[in-house]
Amino acid sequence: MDIAALYEERQSIRAVAEHIGQPYSRVRRQLLQTGVKLRPSGGRPLDLEGDPVADYLAGLHRRGLSLRAIMALTGYAYGFIRLRVGELRDQQGRPRKAAGL
User: CA-CA 20 to 30 A from 80: which of 3, 12, 20, 30?
Assistant: First the structure.
């Protein structure tokens, strides 16, 4: 069975491993040995461009509300907010200030 073809059909490494009855690590190693370029793990990147919810949450954060305060105000889960506001933090995790504030 050609595991590279299964992987190229957009199946995950884990799905290929289950399909052929092999451990994940062995399938991953075989894919790398055959020269297959592995896709990034974690699914598709989050595209926030033009997302009105992300814009709204980021606006609240820029006004000085903490992520937990935004959670209490909006009812969105902390992780949901953090993913959408995460780009507004510097490398030390501190909130970035918007230009002009």
Answer: 12
24 touches 17 (CB < 8 A): yes
Please give the single-letter amino acid code of residue 23.
Answer: P
Please list, in sequence order, all residues whose beta carbon lies within 8 angstroms of the beta carbon of residue 98, skipping any fewer than 6 positions away: 62, 88
Three-state SS for 73? helix
Return d(Cα 57, Cα 76) in angstroms, integer.
10
pLDDT digits (tens, 9 = 90+) for 46-100: 666 678 888 899 889 889 898 899 999 999 988 888 888 865 555 666 655 544 4
Dist CA 80 CA 59 (whole Å) = 15
Candidates 35, 38, 6; CA nearest to 20 is 6
* Spatial contact of 84 and 76, defined as CB atoms under 8 Å apart: no
pLDDT of res. 32: 92
